[in-house]
């Protein structure tokens, strides 16, 4: 906690901002990349969204009040950037969000950066069928191993609601995989 406070202090100080931002990048770049990647599914898109996320963080760090943990704030920005990216992409292509998800999953097999096996591909297919909130909660809990309290801070949702969303997501994924065997 003290380490985060020092980092935040250095990020807000003009004389130490550049160095502190490098530390921030080193500390969170990989975690945020994978969080974004699980939302947008494509490596190049994830890189673009990650870059936009850090640009937004750099520009708005002075406005961060510290009411939540720094990583919760970063995850929230990354999540919002990824969702905005998907909305924009579906509009540009003139297709629904659901059709975009299906297209992205189909493109996974051709993605040279996706090194998953058939089971991991089926899991991604199942996740793509979930409503947006359930998908986010499932990804953060299952892949990022975040606690409900942390997810609550990121998504600004009650812990009880998150538990229900996660439970429903798991049931839907189990049923999807059972039905596809």
Task: Please provide a written account of the structure.
The protein has 181 residues and is mainly alpha-helical. The chain contains nine helices and no strands. The protein has helices spanning 2-12, 17-40, 43-60, 70-93, 97-108, 118-128, 132-143, 148-155, 159-179.
Main sheet: strands, sense, barrel = none
Number of helices: 9
Helix content: over 70%
Number of strands: 0
**Oligomer description:** single chain
Task: Write the element-wise H/E pattern from the N-terminal end onward.
Answer: HHHHHHHHH
Strand content: under 5%
Output mean pLDDT.
90
Q: What would you report as the Rg, rounded to the nearest angstrom?
A: 17 Å
The dominant shape is globular
Q: What is the rounded distance between the termini?
A: 46 Å
* Content-based structural category: mainly alpha
Low-pLDDT stretches: none
Write the topology of this structure.
Layout: H1 2-12, H2 17-40, H3 43-60, H4 70-93, H5 97-108, H6 118-128, H7 132-143, H8 148-155, H9 159-179
Give a quick precis of the structure.
The protein is mainly alpha-helical and 181 residues long. 78% of the residues lie in helices and 0% in strands. The chain is globular, with a radius of gyration of 17 Å.
